[in-house]
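Session log. Operator J.P. requested a structure for one protein chain; no other inputs attached. Running the standard single-chain path with token output.
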Amino acid sequence: MSAGLVLAQDTATQPELTADALVVLGVVLFALVLFLTERLPIDVTAILLIVVLVVLEPWTGIDASTGISGFANDATITVLAMLILSGGISRTGIVQELGRRMAAYAGDSVRKQLFATVVATSPVSGFLNNTPVVALLVPVVTDVANRGNTSPSKLLIPLSYASQVGGMLTLIGTSTNLLASDISARLGDEYPELGAFSMFEFTQLGVVVVITGALYLIFVGHYLLPERVPARADYLEEYDVSDYVADLAVVPGSPLVGGTVREVTEQLGPDVDVVQVVRDDDRSVAPRQNTRLEEGDVLVVRTDREAIGTLENAAGVELVGSPTSASELEDGGDEEDGLVTELVVSLDSRLVGERLDPERFREEFNAAVLGMRHRGELVGERIVGHRLEVGDTLLVQTPPDTLDRLSRRNDVIVAREPPRPDYRASKAPIAIAIMIGVVAVAALEIYPILISALAGVVAMVVTGVLEPNELYDAVEWDIIFLLAGVIPLGIALEQSGAAAYLAWLVVSTAGFLPTIVVLWLFYIVTGLITEVISNNASVVLLIPVAAAAAAAVGSNPFAFVMAVTFAASTAFLGPIGYQTNLFVYGPGGYRFTDYFRIGAPLQLILSIVTVVGIAVIWGV
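Structure written below.
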């Protein structure tokens, strides 16, 4: 329908703002504050929301069983299963191989590199969770840029954005789609137009969005992105750490001879971290604390500028210079002795919230920390004790075999491909067949996506694509807890009448605007809210409001649900709105404004394309 709101307002009655609705709106405000300030990790915030909703049961209507129902919700279990399936695919190296083949095509043309990035990312993100897809492709795309003499800054934000639009191709592309489908099904009792989404419910519109986004990124976007990281930049120059790294020789007769690395650190001070021990032609990278020293050893240490000055007078060692490039640390580029690369703190990393302790980091990860970026900005002299957050990037040196192991851990994203990656390539055909089976069973509606996805998980283990102990490592547990926490919040929002009241406010304040303009406003508002809170939280809060608003103006609730769903999965204005944006923040050397510069026009273009597409396909 295209009737304006001014006609609908005559028949719409104001819902009563009850005490129950006020309490639930207060909980929503409380949740928004926690999401915005990030005082607690999002999974802890989600658990707290469950507790608050149950404690306030007389007003929220959420008893203990309903409070924990999010853990058994179809969307939560399906997301968990899809994350495991994505983990199985990643173990085979299929995604990385696709990226490398596209890189071979790209050469040194920026447009070809962007085309390769988009083509390798968007279709895959329609069937695999886009978070691990970006994590897998960051090193591949960085390598594409370096080989083509292009700044990685030109390609990494497009990588993230391409994964987001690609996630809108199918129901399983993002956790947001699955959650939106579940909410839509729950609202079906009240709004007959709503129900669970089919596998390819919105693929037609998703293809239009992907093509529009791709054309923008390839032909317009890269002009708006500055070269924050120079092409083939040297890591030590990029992180400005050459002034903080020094070579110390253990002189004849030194009291340190026969001592350990730990004893050296105790003598030189807590701000001094031994990165390497060089003995003749051998380099011990990230040496253990019990490593014994010999006369003539050269210690490569990382410290602050003031401490380097005091090292000139330290007993038993002589300051003999400092490396000026990463190749010097790698002994002229010999990868057998250790690689310098970047590690990005991932979404569900155990490092989040921890203070950086180089000694502990070396013991756990077998990597020496040289430098750090926090939210795109270089951390100055002192990195010891700095609290780590998602998206922080650490410059490290590590042996090649350790780099391969790190690339398969969930704690960090490696921004450089291992020289000898250990993929289960022989299992690739089996993994692909399993994913095709999962999608086909759900698409043909033989069984729901929940059952087909769980069956796929079992098949991955039985066929050896995944080891049983790898199941838990593949899951991003903070997303699972977030879903479990916000689902009962959405139920309270609906049952208390708070959603209906918010919808009435939208209707009453929109005045004489046509319905399609109100639909566009819901898209814009959802996109803006997603920039500051989780995309999953935004659909929980806004889908009930959007459906109620559509009903109030005599419009199609499904159209409004689609607008919220698409907008929640396209967060382009900043690095914190979507986890994939954080993953490329450090490796791209970006600033906060870079996202807005390229993302704002894209957000506006897609808002128009999506809303018009919804009107044409489903009607308003």
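Operator note: The first strand starts at residue 245 and ends at 250.
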